[in-house]
Design goal:
The structure holds 2 protein chains of 2 kinds. A 6-stranded mixed β-sheet of chain A has the order 6-7-8-3-9-10, with helices on both faces. Chain A contains 7 helices and 10 strands. Chain A starts with a strand and ends with a strand. Chain A is of the alpha/beta class. In chain A, α3 packs across α4, α4 crosses α5 and α5 packs parallel to α6. By secondary structure, chain B is α+β, with helices and mostly antiparallel strands. In chain B, about 60% of the residues lie in helices and about 20% in strands. Chain B has a 6-stranded mixed beta barrel. Classes of the chains: A alpha/beta, B alpha+beta. At the A-B interface, α2 and α3 of A face α1, α11, α12 and α14 of B. The structure holds adenosine-5'-diphosphate and magnesium ion (MG). The site of adenosine-5'-diphosphate has 12 residues of chain A, from β1, β2 and α1.
Chain lengths: ~220, ~400
Amino acid sequence: MAKSVISLYDVRRYYMMGDFIVKALDGVSLAIEEGEFTAIMGPSGSGKSTLMNLIGCLDTPTDGIIQIDGEGTMGMSEAELAFVRNQKVGFIFQQFNLLGKINALENVMTPLLYAGGVGIRERRERAKFALERVGLADRMHHRPNELSGGQKQRVAIARALVNNPSILLADEPTGALDTTTGRQILELFEEINSEGRTVVLVTHDREIGMRCRRQIRLRDGKLEA
Amino acid sequence: MLWENIRLALKDMMASKLRTLLSLLGIVIGVASVIAILTLGESATKSITQSIVEGGLEMVTIFPNRSEKASTEFTEDFGEKLMANVKELKTVLPVNSSSATLRNGQNTTSASISGVLSTYADILDYKVASGAFFSLTDNLTSRQVVALGSTIAENLFPDGNAVGQYVSIQRNQAKSYLVVAVMESKDASFNLSFNNGIFIPYNTYAQRFIKPANVGSYVVRIADGADPLVVSDQISAYLDSLVGSDAYNLFSPASLAEMAEQITGTFSTFLSAIAAISLLVGGIGIMNIMLVSVAERTKEIGVRKAMGASPNTIRGQFITEAVVLTFTGGFIGIALGTLLSWLVTDLVDWHLHISYGSFLFAAGFSTLVGVFFGWYPAMKASKLDPIEALNYE
Ligand SMILES: Nc1ncnc2c1ncn2[C@@H]1O[C@H](COP(=O)(O)OP(=O)(O)O)[C@@H](O)[C@H]1O
Ligand SMILES: [Mg+2]
């Protein structure tokens, strides 16, 4: 049996909104194995982003256990969580979230900076390589506002890949793109997955969902059977 | 990482130049004032010292205080003794002085009267305008001759031609003195006044005026080429060992320079303290701009955290930014302060003395201001919640 790179046991994420509690995630347990290509689907507000943020260690659960690469994240310090975000997962957002003041290459180099101990030359080489990998070798020195949506998302993917994480998380990566571009991005994810990397993506698009080997459905913070 | 942070900070500063400049104003003004005050203080001290040394003609004046010790040591022989004990002295001249009223016909004036040796004028480089300074013989025979300072001569002989005439000097009883010389005008140098003085032979003074228990003062001429400051210190040291520091007063370039240094030193310390307050105000300006920067870049901070920046890293980034800001401000301030000092010293004709120590101090201090006032905004940035920061719009 393949090993689980992501495991959740009865994970809850509650928000206190004045007097009442919003149960964004209400007891989710699941395991995702190495090399899986998983789509998370569900209506708006069902807790998809909350789940992704928890897996990506951007957020911590109110209750429950999360293991990334077999390691529990409970009780980790901010610095330790930052290390997991840097080394183990690559996160891709709907709105790209590139740094606007620096060019594509520098954006992709940034996670390597936080990895520590990687010299500037190696950072540049690896970032170049990652950009070539996503087909953007000729746009390296462009700033984000000089790139199309699809190109921006490719830069974001290169940035997520540059530290060579075993898990790629993408929260509605095609949500801000037209259908054709979205499909190209999806193909890129399929390629990345075919190299053995675990990919989890959130999508509204049924067609995209169907192309993923596994689908997980959320409703009101719970997994649908 | 540090270089990366510095590069980032510089990039951000360049992106909003006007804002950067305005936020730096406090630091710039603070540092510039401190530098200008310290540099000008130092330059003033050096210039005053220089003019004392140059204008003071390598003179040291010793004034014995009335005391038992003084009356036994400060005799006519003291000069020889001093020269035997302190090297690099050219001459030691005993001088007795008091004041007297002078009259020529209807004209009267008061003057300081000094009994001096015949070499006095030569050694002090005090030039004769007409006639000739009295001679060794005049002194040995205690003749009643007088050399008049320029102001005195003008007062008593408005029509000129004083030489060869007689003036009456009133001291208990009036005596007539033959005017042998009228001196040229000469600026008073510390404790020796010339233009308002008259000079009679040392022995004549001793005979005609009440002879004091000890010699009134000694004018010491330091040897050419010797460092007056060093030699006057040696004289003080010798006198301290001979009679103790209470038994005399010494007026020398050294003591005056020291006084000048003390006064300008106190003054510039005081002013610097005031200027340092403006540095603090500048620091608050930096804190303000950093807080604005953190708020504006909340999203960026979220993105960086999502990519794996630890709280320490974020804090480091913002502290570095604050330090780069204040250091730049300090640098501009140093340049501006030095320029200002240069303009002022040029205007008042002082020698510009640049104090590199104050540069280091200013650079160090502005770095500290950056760390201190950048700390709180940087802490704030480092503690932002990644998700909240990412969703900030
Ligand atoms: N910071 C928050 N404070 C309060 N409620 C929140 C917060 N974040 C998410 N929620 C709520 O949690 C639920 C799930 O949100 P989310 O995970 O973003 O849904 P999805 O991504 O599936 O659209 C929603 O009802 C949302 O309003
Ligand atoms: Mg969402």
